[in-house]
Every structure is written in structure tokens, then in C-alpha cells.
Automatic annotation (TrEMBL):
MF-aspect GO terms: ATP binding; protein kinase activity
The protein, known as: N/A
Top-level taxonomic group: Eukaryota
Residue ranges of every copy of the Protein kinase domain listed in the record: 1-172
InterPro entries tied to this protein: Kinase-like_dom_sf, Prot_kinase_dom
Length: 172
């Protein structure tokens, strides 16, 4: 009997993922659309997340816009969009801020994390993008380990993820 965390066969055997040597392990959440690749403990091979994008959302076009300039104050995660049906979003794996250990950290560490979140949201708003789902699960941080496996990541940088509920607003 298949598990609710299993990767569907069509995604496991997707030619674009196979061409990139991306072998998905399981879903992040049951019945979800976000899957990840395994990485042996202590290994520095890149680890990825792949999200199956819903065509009725603006997530694809928003991520595409945000890839033009990934330096601060842009706090979106570097990604690649595979234009298949459905579209796939391929991102480096980073840990959720919800799993970050805040206990015994200096106040400056916590203030810096919140400052980066505010800076990222402010940047989105300047681009007329409303995230509409900012929460700890949708904010991630790159560890030194994450940054060592993907040159696009910056150690300690906070990234805003999951633009599935987001909207691009018209000027005016």
C-alpha cells in the first residue's frame, strides 16, 4: 500500500529531473506537493527540494521575477523552473526557521533573523508582491552546511519561501 509521503512515479521518472540526477526520496508533508532528495549525514552532495506548482497560482511567475537579483534585500530562495506540465520548481534544500535553535543564542541573532524577514517582505512589497502566508514554515535559513553544498546560498541568510498563496498586485 503506498504511503502518503511517496513520490508519484511520474515525478520519480520525470526526464528533466533524471537529466539533472535528481532522485526524489519522499514528500515533506503527507499528500503534499513538495519533495526532497536524500543526503547522507556528513556528505556535501547537494540536496534539493522539488515543488509541483499549481497552474492556478502565480507562484511560477513570482519565482521567475525574483530570480533576477538574488542579493540582499531579496530574500527569495534561488531556484530553477522546469517548464513541463505541471511546472516544477527545483530549489536547494534549506532548513525551516521553525527548526532553528533559538535557545542560548544572543539577542542579536534573533533580531538579525527578524530584520532579514522584514527586509525580505519590504522588498516583495516594493515589487507589488503580497506573500499572504508568512509564517515560520515559510521562512528558511541556510546553515554553513547548506551553503557549502550550493554556491548560490549564503550562510545565515534568511529566505522567504512558498509563494503558492502570493499575489502580484497592479500599481495604483
Amino acid at each position: 500500500m503506498p504511503s502518503s509521503l511517496d513520490v508519484p512515479d511520474w515525478l520519480k521518472n520525470h526526464p528533466e529531473l533524471l537529466a539533472r540526477d535528481i532522485k526524489l526520496h519522499m514528500a515533506i508533508k503527507p499528500y503534499g506537493s513538495l519533495y526532497y532528495t536524500p543526503r547522507p549525514l556528513g556528505s556535501y552532495i547537494p540536496q534539493y527540494m522539488v515543488k509541483v506548482l499549481d497552474s492556478v497560482t502565480e507562484e511560477c511567475s513570482i519565482n521567475e521575477r525574483l530570480q533576477h537579483s538574488l542579493s540582499s534585500p531579496n530574500h527569495s530562495l534561488p531556484c530553477e523552473i522546469i517548464r513541463s506540465e505541471p511546472h516544477l520548481l527545483v530549489m536547494p534544500f534549506v532548513g525551516s526557521l521553525a527548526f532553528l535553535e533559538f535557545k542560548n543564542r544572543p539577542t542579536s541573532f534573533i533580531l538579525d533573523a527578524y530584520h532579514q524577514i522584514i527586509e525580505g517582505v519590504e522588498y516583495l512589497h516594493r515589487l507589488q508582491i503580497a506573500h499572504l502566508d508568512i509564517c515560520f514554515d515559510n521562512v528558511a535559513s541556510a546553515s554553513d552546511y547548506d551553503a557549502a553544498t550550493d554556491a548560490r546560498l549564503v550562510e545565515g541568510k534568511v529566505y522567504i519561501v512558498d509563494f503558492g498563496q502570493s499575489r502580484q498586485l497592479a500599481l495604483g
